[in-house]
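Q: Structure for this?
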Amino acid sequence: QVQLQESGPGLVKPSQTLSLTCTVSGGSVSSGGHYWSWIRQHPGKGLEWIGYIYYSGSTYYNPSLKSRVTISIDTSKNQFSLKLSSVTAADTAVYYCARVVVGTTSFDYWGQGTLVTVSS
Amino acid sequence: DIQMTQSPSSLTASVGDRVTITCRASQSISRNLNWYQQKAGKAPKLLIYDASSLQSGVPSRFSGSGSGTDFTLTISSLQPADFATYFCQESYSPPWTFGQGTKVEIK
């Protein structure tokens, strides 16, 4: 059973960089059939896709966040990470990591989510 | 970006009812449409992919249909475990977008 777990600070100051890591167990981030993705959900709102990374290191970011987002992968640790720079209160959200099936582009496994609050 | 619009935003139903949720895309997305269920405080769970394929382990009372711009998620006989919020997601072209959600509540 594939499991994903987000980790990182729950509180980030405005203008700083949000950093989260997703640790994958029961599966490998080096598998060729999957992308590894980040999604966020503002409190009480819908879902916003942030971007994905492939095991090769290729990435695709949501244009709405592209200038501030970096997703990286560490195959030796079976982890992938998110960095979001210059955060504001509008970046307060629950952040999820998820596995994406390449053929269907469906998010088939998700982490439990972690709330990140941007506040001074 | 492709805009996904769900209707209704919420509905109230009883156990045993047949429930239908609609998702409309702002342009044709063929059958590149997925459905998720989210319970309060939990991550979304994949129910249906490619418009009508049931994800492994999902009860057969869930079904999906549609193509082009109009899609439907149907729950044939609503069960207590089904009270949740449902989201559609287009998988036609990135940035992948989600509908705003449909909350299914108990009557």
